[in-house]
Amino acid sequence: MKLSALSPRYEAIQETRVWIELYPRLKRLAEMAAKADINFTIDAEEADRLVLSLKLLEQLAREPSLGTWRGLGLAVQAYQTRAVALIPLLAGLAKDSGRRLMVRLVKGAYWDSEIKRAQVGGRAGHPVFTTKPATDLSYLAVARALIEAHPYLYTQFATHNAHTLAATRAIAVNTPIEHQRLHGMGETLYAAGHRHVRAADASHLCPGGGRTRIFCPIWCGGYWKTAPTPASCICLLDDDTPPEAVAADPISQVEAQPGPHPRIRLPRDMYGDRLNSFWR
Ligand SMILES: Cc1cc2nc3c(=O)[nH]c(=O)nc-3n(C[C@H](O)[C@H](O)[C@H](O)COP(=O)(O)OP(=O)(O)OC[C@H]3O[C@@H](n4cnc5c(N)ncnc54)[C@H](O)[C@@H]3O)c2cc1C
């Protein structure tokens, strides 16, 4: 569920309207999902909306009208520098409310706009990592935290990246999890993943038989936000890109080049010699 599609005022500075206008609709939809016993995950959108999503999730998790339903969830973006810190918070909410939560781990679809927004606003830093290996590594760190939070959190790994798929299977050993892919994408990768599990009798790596949920976006109206373009998925079909490059290990990449991207300056310094006007 993309909350910005439910209300055009789903913004941090419109919190009062969010509770009056958006929350009742969200609750009604969650009650319908609970009644039908289907999953209901709040999508991850721009970093500025994260705190608001957490507040809405907390309120929903504590709603008596949702009974013992275990389908409520939130998507978490590994590219956000706050990602790892979110997991104990979500596990704490699940424990406290008595409602197991689902967590879909993604890398994050709005990277360019997050960088641009931080620059335009002259912010002190970026809310997201600035190198791809840092995001890939963060994904693995969050994956580990999620597995440790079992059974309070049920983990859903959404990726089309070969290394991420293989590494999360290894991290999740003996823990029930699922993978998610987008409809029409990643078929070759997931077919190869299933063949590997069968051939290596590696079923312990993914209890549930390597369950994969196929995610099919449905929207009403004419507006659709940026579609994710997973670079690794495209490389998989490119004969000139060696498998070692497609499935490169992010730990060695970050060790080889730690820190932020050398060409993405802090918003303050983005003009070189001249300070960003917010800092003058
Ligand atoms: C089932 C499913 C559900 C999804 N739901 C959501 C959702 O709710 N919210 C959402 O935001 N996205 C969602 N996505 C998209 C997701 O966040 C990724 O954009 C997409 O899956 C690509 O990541 P990857 O691991 O598949 O591929 P990869 O090619 O391994 O990763 C690409 C990702 O790496 C990151 N990246 C790229 N360059 C840099 C850089 N220079 N610095 C830092 N990070 C960088 C970006 O996050 C980019 O999307 C979903 C994806 C799937 C498959």
List the helices and strands and how they pair.
Layout: H1 3-6, H2 15-36, E1 40-42, H3 50-61, E2 72-77, H4 83-97, E3 101-106, H5 111-120, H6 132-148, E4 153-158, H7 162-171, E5 177-182, H8 187-199, E6 212-215, H9 231-236, H10 243-246, H11 250-256
Parallel strand pairs: 1-2, 2-3, 3-4, 4-5, 5-6
This protein binds flavin-adenine dinucleotide.
- The CATH C-level name is Alpha Beta
- What is the spatial order of strands in the main beta sheet? 1-2-3-4-5-6
Architecture (CATH level 2) name: Alpha-Beta Barrel
Number of domains: 1
Bound molecules: flavin-adenine dinucleotide
What is the number of strand segments?
A: 6
H/E series, N to C? HHEHEHEHHEHEHEHHH
CATH topology: TIM Barrel
* Percent strand: 5-15%
Protein architecture, described:
- The chain has 280 residues and is an alpha/beta fold.
- The chain has one domain: Alpha-Beta Barrel (TIM Barrel).
- The chain contains eleven helices and six strands.
- It has helices at 3-6, 15-36, 50-61, 83-97, 111-120, 132-148, 162-171, 187-199, 231-236, 243-246, 250-256; strands spanning 40-42, 72-77, 101-106, 153-158, 177-182, 212-215.
- The chain has a six-stranded parallel β-sheet.
- Strand 5, helix 8 and strand 6 form a beta-alpha-beta unit.
- Helix 6 runs parallel beside helix 7.
- The mean pLDDT is 90.
- Bound molecules: flavin-adenine dinucleotide (FAD).
- Flavin-adenine dinucleotide is lined by residues 43-44, 75, 77, 79, 106-111, 128-132, 134-135, 158-161, 164, 180-182, 215, 228, 230-232, 261.
